[in-house]
Amino acid sequence: MPHGPYDIGPARPRLDALSKACGAERFSTDHYPPGMLWAGVRRAGVPHGLIREIDTARAASLPGVRRVLTRADVPGANRQGIVHKDMPVLCGSRVRHAGDPVALVVADSRDVLRRALELVRVSIDPLPAVCDVDTALAENAPLLHPEHGSNLLLAAEILKGDAEASLKKCDVILEETFFTPSQAHAFLETENGLARMDEDGVLHMTVSTQAPFRDRFEIGHALGLAPWKIRIESPFLGGGFGGKDGSTVQCLLGLAAMRLPGRWIKMWWDREESFLAGYKRHAARMEYTLGAMADGTLEALRCRLWYDSGAYAHLGGEIMELGMEHAAGPYRIGSMDCRGWCVYTNNPVAGAFRGFGVAQVSFAFEGMMDRLADRLGRDRLDLRRQNALRRGDRNCSGVTLTSSTGLDECLRRLREDELWTSRQAWKKAAPRFTRRGVGVAAVFNGMGYGRGLADNAIAKIELTPEGHFTIYSGVSDMGQGNASTYAQIAGETLCQDAGRLRVVQPDTELAHPSGSASAGRTTYTFGKALIQACELMASKLIRRAALALMIDEPGGFALVPGAVRHLPTGRELPLSALGAMLTRDDRICVAEYLMPVSREVPDTGKDFALGFPHLIFPYAAHLVRIEIDELTGAVRVCDYLAATDGGRVLNPQNFHQQIEGGVAQGLGFALMEDFATSNGQVATRDLSTYLIPTCMDLPDTRSLAVETLEHSGPFGMKGVGEVGLNGPLPAVASALSDALGGYAVRAPITPETVLHLLSAGARA
Amino acid sequence: MIIHFSVNGRDVERDVRGDERAVDIIREDLGLTGTKEGCGTGECGACAVLMNGRARLSCLTLAAQLDGAVLTTIEGLGTPDRPHPLQRAFAEHGAVQCGFCTPGMVVAAADLLARNPAPSRDDIREGLSGNLCRCTGYSRILDAVEKAGR
Known about the structure:
The structure holds two protein chains of two kinds. Chain A is an alpha+beta fold.
């Protein structure tokens, strides 16, 4: 680490990188306390049915089995869910997807556990399964949640102006229906954790989670425990991407621990169980009608969206909300009539995933922009620039953009890049039996929770007796690097080097509630709170130093690495002296921050209890060059360029990591990832059937930072965790139509799709 | 059965069952949790260790197969105080995000560099193609191996 403060601006290696590279960092998977027991789940195996009987006797009598638990053993509401509490901890009467849990077994070893799970006899009377949104919404369809009255989780609309009237006046009207598949997060560390119920009735849990503070309430509600009798520790996650936002193992572990107090109990889903029972991206169908004028002005969008929520709600309504709020893309458009239906089916549970509802509509709105440009004979980049949102515009939900809006500059950077300017020559140079295409996409992704849910964080920093600083993070680090950025924020504000800064990962006993690691909010919200806490700390240390140095005027002091210096006299007080001098109460500073929400409340979107609308948006423009094998239909991604407006960049290394990682997952979504089910049964159960990109599949992505100033953000930043994922699918589709003339409407874009477009082109 | 092997320079004797996996011995019994498990079926590479100098997937290796082997895990390559050049390069060049694939990647890279001290970028892609990473998009991992190889 270089000499000097660990400050904002330069590319800095993360503080956790070396310990991870040496295998020294301990994830929740890495804890095996002495005397620990193993817990596992018997799952339904059928996508829909009524439980007739669960016979646990044989499993319970197996030596080494400690408990076999069923619904009858669950105290509390037995219901999990972030907003809608509709997901049982253990199913009692009905199962709604093949991965639904019906029995929980605790055993001395994994080996015994495996055998015991097979011995649990589950008799289920099958019900007809509804495995797509149309079947689920058909009249007389079997209901997953009869008490809910229909399979419709949420129907909603966002209206701006009179889209129907506007469409009648348009010079060009285009229609298309798009489909995106379910996608698995496929984090390398599958869902896991461990729990122990103490003698004093406190439930301790170490778990791979994106939302430790919310988990307490979810577990408490489901199991009838007081949330403040639950302590959650959240070490670094081995990936999350949304899939660890909401209960996975938590309530099951809590239940096991309650029934076997005093013992540590570990649960770790294997890959197949993760695919079966973990959350997924919502598959979507999107019907689009876009109206524009001959000069390229966008006039009206009518769109109808269907999101497959699977068996339970998770955040389905909120995810669809974000999709709808972004339905017309990052463009000025006169009117929009967007209606959405989020639907229960007997498929695996859909939930949060990076790009949260927006990854789907990005394919649709950018597909429409390509079609419009081609119809009008316009340059695809120019048409996007013509309509790009600028600060002061109203977006498609009718919300005025008062914060940083750098899309046009992102597009301009693509236009001047050699990958764009040389595209014609590059395409002409395609080798035999190959075609080349260059695609572009413009995307955005609202940051934070949106209106209706306090997006807050509370930061705590402590001066240690040794004169170092400990930051108590309230927001999990699932790999995005926020923990290290917190150290950087403290290093900048307090002028301290990395060696004096330590970040403690979230522990509900030590840190303060700070929301989830999600929604591109982790650095923004906690960072703002932390800056204030550090400023309080700096001001306090100066006043205390003035006392100790017997200087009656606190002006003229500055913090320097390891000390407080009085500039007029040059006298210094080491931080270690201050640390030793002050009581613990006085060595701690706490501050909080609440993300602003839009003051404008459009007269629409009223079906959303929370999350509508958003105020701050990161933007991006992506360019991809692909080569298509005419014989096999294989697509090779040759070059990728992403220009991103994330406000000011606090750490270029971290910023580009987020973009490159988002692009990688987005290219998987574009070209290969398809979480397949057949009649509610998972067809892709391992990483040899569910393919994610390897290093052979991806180009070296080039990431450009377009640094606007986000006035509200910490040091001018806004979150870019999600936006990078939204571009690759529409960009690749754009490149495909550039190369072949025909348009893809279904993701992933497989060799079959490509060959179909090739043969259709040959016929034409 | 009783097996003898060396791990990170230390001789070990263990009584193992025929169906026990090497990864479980390494992680749970020896406490070397730097070796990760991401899939259990040999597809992700997170559990790679050096066995007699070559990268091997410990989830597909039976404990009994460790008998007589010289094993080096990620902890044996280096520590935060005395990191291996690859570990240092991974940290410096931003090749680490969540870090769960990292130990397996470093092990696979160490195997590659032992056989080919100055690999081309394509050689590195080939050498790491059995290791999945879900966070980084791989470029910075390739950079790190390239830099460490020089």
